[in-house]
Amino acid sequence: MVRFAVIVAAVLMLVLAAIWGFQRRLIYLPDAADAGSAATVLPGARDITLETDDGVRLGAWLVPATKADRGVAVLVAAGNAGNRATRAPLARALAAEGLTVLLFDYRGYGGTEGRPSEKGLARDVRAAQRHLVQEAGVPADRILYVGESLGAAVVTELATEIAPGGLVLRSPFVDLASVSQVHYPFLPVRLLLRDEYPLAEQLATVKVPVTVVLGAEDSIVPPDQSRAVAAAAPTLRDLVEVAGADHNDPALVHGKALTAAVVDLAEAVTAGS
Q: Cα(162)–Cα(74) distance, rounded to whole angstroms?
């Protein structure tokens, strides 16, 4: 009996060690293929290269407003899968509303070098924000951060250091452990995770207008977690629930509800200037 218990314990330790070592392959699901040229996907857009403070070069697309320019830029931080080409429909919809849009790939995504991690993505999003301010000449308070799922945590962390004009968080989770526990209830994920993304905790310190957009049928990030994030925002502007929408449904990813939420926040920014 003792021998059996020792064997079980040893197997369990091996399993946990494997999860510890390979967990980032479960968290980050990049499409590593080159995203291609901006102009072939979004006419009028141009390819740019961002450089992070640790020397990683990131592919990005700068998409100009295609209607009357509102003088507001949108920094889009993607979720954990795909690459920037996947977000082209959102950029197209926002550009048609008079907004400049920056799509960028995290390290390891879209043909970009490096491997993703929480610290790495924090460096990546700072390179994107820096480009908008220093190269595109957009004032920091006329930039909106739009974060999708994991990207919501990325831009919230950025906002704790560099305040934007406002935040739009689509399908945000409370923290990575909370959402991981939903999908791996048999694992001590809070003890195992190397990347934490404490979104709700960090959002509580951010004093800019925040809009949360969620899908009422989200099977990846439970809607209650997104509602909890909204409750944590000191200056919540709006909570938008898209009826019947799952995590990756077009209606939620780049539909009218998300576009309207971004435009509403842009109008608030310009009205206050």
A: 15
